[in-house]
Protein 1
Amino acid sequence: VQLQESCPGLVKPSQTLSLTCTVSGGSITTNYYYWSWIRQPPGKGLEWMGAIAYSGSTYYSPSLESRTTISRDIAKNMGYLQMNNLKPEDTGVYLCNIVTRTRTYWGQGTQVTVSS
């Protein structure tokens, strides 16, 4: 199973970021998983943004909750991240991650640059 994030490239401040995470080479068939989004600003460590559980429940970092929505479409093998009102400090590499009982899958990450 491989995960691949979409490539939004350059986004302007105040715009909305929409990312997809596509599963290929298989399907997430387990009934226990957490599908997360993580980001890494330049020169800083990984920051967990939020996750959607197998149940459909969502969890968000308190600092990002007001601007972030995470969802998924299991039938399409796709996960989604939407973040509103982007700021320059949202610049970084964005990664998706799926954790099951036995495995952890990572996407390779996609660069998001917020600049006017």
Protein 2
Amino acid sequence: VQLVESGGDIMQPGGSLRLSCAASGFTFSTDAMTWVRQAPGKGPEWVSRINTSGGDTYYADSVKGRFTISRDITKQTVYLQMNSLKTEDTAVYYCKSEIYGAWGQGTQVTVSS
């Protein structure tokens, strides 16, 4: 099982960013996927979840209305579209396979003016 996140960057407040997580080594279409983030000096925070079909999505209150999770089965990739970024969104973002519990290496998102 391998998960590789990408797309992190340094952004100004109010900006937008799309994170990607490329999956391999397992049957992506049968696994729900989750995004988790960890800010400096804090524990992991669950951000969003998408079910196997992509028809059901869930969000933490802190990102609801600003972030959108999606998945492309053909590309074996899960995305996190992040809009209206805030400084408190600064964190390392990880994607996670629910069945296997595997995490990627993370991608850094920094929001600063």
